[in-house]
């Protein structure tokens, strides 16, 4: 399998998702970036914009196990990870795995669960394992968590802590459809639900293969410096209280490598970095409180950082790639 094969697998999955989801090409690309780089996705937007539908469309496009967890205030950590229960017939304790033991896990309305339950995902998302009663259980690869949350609801919700947000490779906002897209949505869903008709187009074996190969995409020395220059500017910006950690810089590197493949290249360009800065870094930053009240947004601050960061010339990174 080579870079072309990765692009072909991604295009098959994207085309399948587009049988259900109208528009949102950029959101689908970001979802594929997380999938191929073994990352996790946080889908945030107002209710009814298709967050859960997008997650289910991706899951049905893959020949992998899928579980959905509806997060609620009374959900317990063991409802996610599993529990050791006493089997009276055998006279011993037996492990009953929770829904987290799936390839694709949809954590629906994740911010409705208590911090205690949210924390049950930390080890799973970072280390691909979970520890229950002192015993560690490995999670089968591929493993991906897609979480959804509604930003406008405050009743009965618990904001995700920074440590939890940092586990997500990308944060995706869908937004409202355009008028033309809205009409097409009504036509597509008028008689039946297209989600029920789509079939898997990529096997688990193919997915594991692309996840092992994407890191071969060439990243020049200049591009590495460009990425770190952006990261360091988030740490010294007077508008930012908490900048990007080394985990965040590694996440950006992984994301731009996959994004380059989706655009048909086996090397990373500055445009790849610019395209992935907001979805990868935006949810990891904390703006100073006084600036939030003045209407400052993370997106505009990242635009300022990109504008102030010198961009490697095409000749520089192409020359190193060809050599």
Would you mind describing this structure in some detail?
This protein is of the alpha/beta class and 323 residues long. It folds into 2 domains: 3-210, Rossmann fold, CATH 3.40.50; 217-322, Magnesium chelatase subunit I, C-Terminal domain (Helicase, Ruva Protein, domain 3). Helices cover 45% and strands 16% of the residues. It contains 15 helices and 13 strands. The chain has helices at residues 3-17, 25-36, 51-60, 77-81, 115-118, 122-127, 162-165, 179-189, 204-213, 221-236, 246-262, 270-281, 289-292, 298-308, 314-322; strands at 41-44, 62-63, 66-70, 82-87, 92-97, 104-108, 129-132, 135-138, 144-149, 170-172, 202-203, 240-242, 286-287. Strands 3-6-9-1-10 form a 5-stranded parallel sheet. A two-stranded parallel ribbon has the order 2-11. The chain has a two-stranded antiparallel sheet with strand order 4-5. Helix 1 (3-17) packs across helix 9 and helix 10 packs across helix 11. The protein is globular, with a radius of gyration of 21 Å.
């Amino acid at each position: 399998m080579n870079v072309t094969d990765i692009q072909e697998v991604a295009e098959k999955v994207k085309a399948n998702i587009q049988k259900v989801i109208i528009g949102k090409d950029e959101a689908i690309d970001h979802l594929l970036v997380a999938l191929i780089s073994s990352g996790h996705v946080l889908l945030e937007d107002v209710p009814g914009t298709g967050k859960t539908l997008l997650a289910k469309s991706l899951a049905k496009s893959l020949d992998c196990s899928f579980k959905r967890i509806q997060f609620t205030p009374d959900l317990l950590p063991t409802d996610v990870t599993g529990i050791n229960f006493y089997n009276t017939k055998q006279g011993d304790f037996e492990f009953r795995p929770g829904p987290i033991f799936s390839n694709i896990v949809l954590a629906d309305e994740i911010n409705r669960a208590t911090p205690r339950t949210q924390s049950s995902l930390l080890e799973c998302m970072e280390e691909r394992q979970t520890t229950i009663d002192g015993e560690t259980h490995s999670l089968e690869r591929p493993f991906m968590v897609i979480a959804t949350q509604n930003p406008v609801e405050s009743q009965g919700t618990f904001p995700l802590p920074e440590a939890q947000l940092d586990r997500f490779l990308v944060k995706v906002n869908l937004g409202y459809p355009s008028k033309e897209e809205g009409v097409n949505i009504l036509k597509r869903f008028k008689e039946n639900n297209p989600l029920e008709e789509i079939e898997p187009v990529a096997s688990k074996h193919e997915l594991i293969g692309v996840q092992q190969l994407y890191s071969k995409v060439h990243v020049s020395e200049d591009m590495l410096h460009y990425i770190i220059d952006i990261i360091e500017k988030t740490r010294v910006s007077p508008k930012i209280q908490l900048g990007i950690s080394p985990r965040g810089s590694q996440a950006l590197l992984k994301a731009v490598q996959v994004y380059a493949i989706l655009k048909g290249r086996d090397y990373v360009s500055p445009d790849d970095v610019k395209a992935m800065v907001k979805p990868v870094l935006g949810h990891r930053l904390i703006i100073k409180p006084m600036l939030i009240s003045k209407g400052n947004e993370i997106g505009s601050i990242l635009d300022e950082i990109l504008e102030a960061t010198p961009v490697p010339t095409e000749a520089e990174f192409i020359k190193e790639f060809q050599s």
